[in-house]
Amino acid sequence: MARRAGPLSWTAVAHPSPTSPRRQAAIPALLAAFALLLGACSNADRPTLADRAAPTSVTSTTAPSGPTTTQVRLDELPPGPENLLGYIATPLGTEPEVRTAPDPQAERLEIGATTEVGAPTTFAVLGDPGVTSAATNGWYKVLIPTRPNQGTAWVPAASVALTQTPMRVFISLADRTLRVENNGASVFDTTVAIGTDENPTPLGATYITELIQNTNPGGAYGPYAFGLALHSETLTEFAGGPGQVGVHGTNQPDLIGQAVSHGCVRLNNDDIQALVDLQLPLGVPVLIS
Q1: Residue-wise pLDDT tens digits, 178-233
Q2: DSSP structure string for the chain
Q3: Of 42, 141, 197, 223, which is most buried, counting CB atoms within 10 Å of its CB?
């Protein structure tokens, strides 16, 4: 699809986090358009953060109270399907404390309390937070929503609310399918369009960072778009933005099943609506293979 030449302006509304259905996102006076965030899309209409009921797939989880014996240290866990167990960390303060190591003196990363579109920041936790070593006790290793893809960092356990979801999203580029599982059982399966050979959809483990409701459901993104903690590996920017990859609807359903995007994953509009209806929480793992 052709790239859009200029930015869009829009406003955001309340959006649920994994821990609070009525949590209000802090909305800056001027927000970058969603079209500037995605590395695979263009010709977007005016979007807003979707306002929906609290996700039923999330349960509260008690943080570990002390170290236990384990053969695998949390700092050795790579981001992958076997280590994304559905744990979600949502910062409690106005500025998330995110560091390069499980040490209060380690370098602090600048990650805001909200995403660029105004959704509350969330992190996908690696491993089981109840199984720690003495060296990492009190800290969670998390995937972060910045470049490079599958980048990891650490957050203090006391600085976040921990929840867990039984949901998983699986995207197969070879089969061009998207599947959602709940407790290991398939609850949704559909055909999708993916990135081209020149600008492929990135592989690996990621998670959902926001849900956008487009005010013109007949536009290029369809009625909804999910943002991912994932960026194009061939486009350093897209129309001035960071090249974020998303999962969204389309006004070209005839291209579903083909490799036609700049990296985003497209569903037909009925399917993106069905995906929204599953109430996927922010932070839910997305595994692209």
Answers
A1: 999 999 999 999 999 999 999 999 999 999 999 999 989 999 999 999 999 999 99
A2: -PPPSS-----------SS-TTPPPP--SSPPPHHHHBSS--S---EEE---PPPTT-EE-PPP-S----SS-GGGPPSSTTTEEEEEEEE-SSS---BSSSSTTSPBP---SB-TTSPBP-EEEES-TTS--TTTTTEEEEE-SSSSTT-EEEEEGGGEEEEE--EEEEEETTTTEEEEEETTEEEEEEE-BEE-SSSPPPPEEEEEEEEEEES-TTSTT-SEEEEEEEE-SS-S-BTTB--EEEEE--S-GGGTTSEEESS-EE--HHHHHHHHHTTPPTT-EEEE-
A3: 141
